[in-house]
Amino acid sequence: MTDKGLQDTFGRQIRDLRISVTDRCNFRCLYCLPETEEASNFYRPRSEDPAPASATKKIRYHWKPRREILTYEEIVRFVRIAAGLGVQKLRLTGGEPLLRPHLPELIHALARIQGIQDLALTSNGFGFQHQAQALYEAGLDRMTFSLDSLNRERFLKMTGRDGLEEVLQSIRLARSMGFAPIKVNAVIIRGLNDHELPDLVAFGRQESVIMRFIEFMPLDAGKAWQREHVVSRQEMLNRLHQDFTLLPLGQQHAAETAQRWQHADGQGEIGIIAPVSSPFCGQCNRIRLTADGQLRTCLFSLKEHDFKLRLREGSSDHDIAQALKEAVLSKEKGHAIGQASFVQPERTMSFIGG
Ligand code: SAM
Ligand code: SF4
Description:
The chain is an alpha/beta fold. 29% of the residues lie in helices and 16% in strands. It has a twelve-stranded mixed beta sheet with strand order 7-8-9-6-5-4-3-2-1-10-11-12. Helix 2 (72-84) runs parallel beside helix 3. It is globular. Bound molecules: S-adenosylmethionine and iron/sulfur cluster.
């Protein structure tokens, strides 16, 4: 094997590692971890059949037992090896990463690894306020929050929790503390929150945060995804151009997932992440480590590479580096959403780490 760090067979150089620190979550977003079958079939009120009574029973998720979750020492060792092979960006996610006890300790250790240039966290923002200062002092560079609605009832319907006010406060606190830039993700789903697009753009502008609109992907635990629920990038843009003058921004780097625009007066930026209508697989430089130590070379991978076993069964750093290089060689050319050959992975977004 030639020594090009982590390069796949399509010449893509891996620079970005996303780490899920827990598969658990305190929210029940209906596009991710729906609380009930009824919630996962959120389009049912518009269809002919009434929901059966069993559909309102809470779904029981099977979280990985704690002994199967990587320890902080294991994560840090893995990242040190990956950084030695050219990984520069880290994003901690989950599940809800803030649920993992003592998260600032992990951040403190990761931020000091040679080669790591950017350390970000994606969170639903619930409970952020109790940890914000410790996260900041530990060396966290950036925060991304998720916020799908500015309407209390709709927020509750989409996340299963009455948490809008708290999430808004978290976003404002993060901004006042100096986390920058702050990004706010909203998954846009037809008939649910697509009519809120202009309000969400106005919110981003007013609060000086970057809104990122994400197309709904078939990674929901309820397996209720249907193409007709996806609001494509073009549709989102058409809608936004009715209210705003948005000018396209160039790419900051080749592997950028979002296409970006800014308001004509330069005040505020939005991005659209369009993996369904406009896949960006050709430039993808990301790999993912699940909370239980499985490496995934694509969100939609059907195969995982077991690094927990290697980390726990005495493999040397050299052996782990070799295994990582080999795993990256199997990185898929791209996903097949929308094609007849598409198979939804068994593990869904919260278990993979979004
Ligand atoms: N719990 C944290 C949060 O919600 O920000 C981090 C994990 S969550 C899985 C990461 C991101 O994935 C969130 O912004 C969420 O909106 C997004 N996501 C989850 N399920 C999705 C789906 N089916 N399609 C598109 N995005 C999804
Ligand atoms: Fe939890 Fe995030 Fe999934 Fe919502 S999107 S259920 S907050 S992991």
